Amino acid sequence: MSFTRLQKLINEKNCRIVVGLDPRPNMLRVGETLFSWGKRIIDAVAEIVPAVKPQAAFYEAAGIAGITALSETVQYAKQRGLYVIMDAKRGDIGSTAEAYAEAYLGIGELGCDCVTVNPYLGSDGIKPFLVQAESNDGALFALVKTSNPSSGELQDVITDSGKPVYIRTASMLGALDASGERIGFVVGATYPEQLAELRAMFPKSFFLVPGYGAQGGTAASVAAAFSADGSLAIVNSSRGIITADDPRAAAVAARDDINSVICK
User: Fold this and answer.
1) Domain span at residue 20?
2) Cβ-count burial of 152 within 10 angstroms (0-12 exposed, 13-18 middle, 19+ buried)?
């Protein structure tokens, strides 16, 4: 659903962590399937975190069985009351974008509360997702300044306006959704200065922040993502939780780490 529901869950649980479900084959215990692995992680963290983020690629790599497991995982997470973000980073135009939007924001078996999208095809690659989100009270997170080391090769290029591409992209997204209720920004914890810059420029937009933990981002580096009252952002943690001997304890530790710089 829209970011209103996500923020409500964050407030209720006092937790700003979304758990990324990135199942690699070596993570599965003896006898586990992709679905039973995801169920185990969800059961461990459901009372702690407000949201989970299945990474579609790891399920797609397993073929038909993986897609089935992805659908089952999405439905189970919903049953546990979690906000579900499909991390698919889809990007296309026209009828193809409409089909992706229907798949991940529609009422079908893969339908989620939110989906990640790649906006670098321009606004006509985003509008079909926005239409679907408005129809089903959903939302999308669009890539703006990503956490990977080479993101600057394109995203930091200075445009004719004197601003980098990532600012131009954020401005396009902001124009499509001035209220910030439907389109959020993906901004990496590994670029705290840009994170602070974007927060100042777009005070109403919801941020999804990857790069915390294994990629080197810290609680201090994600602090700038949040509004003054500690809202409007959620921090992704994948490997730090899903590979832990005790995922619940790891989720609690991540929650408390982020809260230590937010909840003063």
Assistant:
1) 3-262
2) middle
Which of helix, strand or coil describes residue 160? coil
Query: From CA 80, how far away is CA 101, in angstroms rounded?
Result: 24
Distance between CA atoms of residues 249 and 169, nearest Å? 37
| Cβ-based neighbours of 95, under 8 Å, separated by 6 or more | none
pLDDT per residue over 36-52, tens digit each? Answer: 999 999 999 999 999 99
Which residues are annotated as catalytic?
Answer: 89
Structure confidence by residue, pLDDT tens digits, 185-233 = 999 999 999 999 999 999 999 999 998 987 778 999 999 999 999 999 9
Backbone angles phi, psi at 10, to 5 degrees: -60, -45
Please tell me the pTM assigned to this model: 0.96
| CATH code, domain carrying 187 | 3.20.20.70
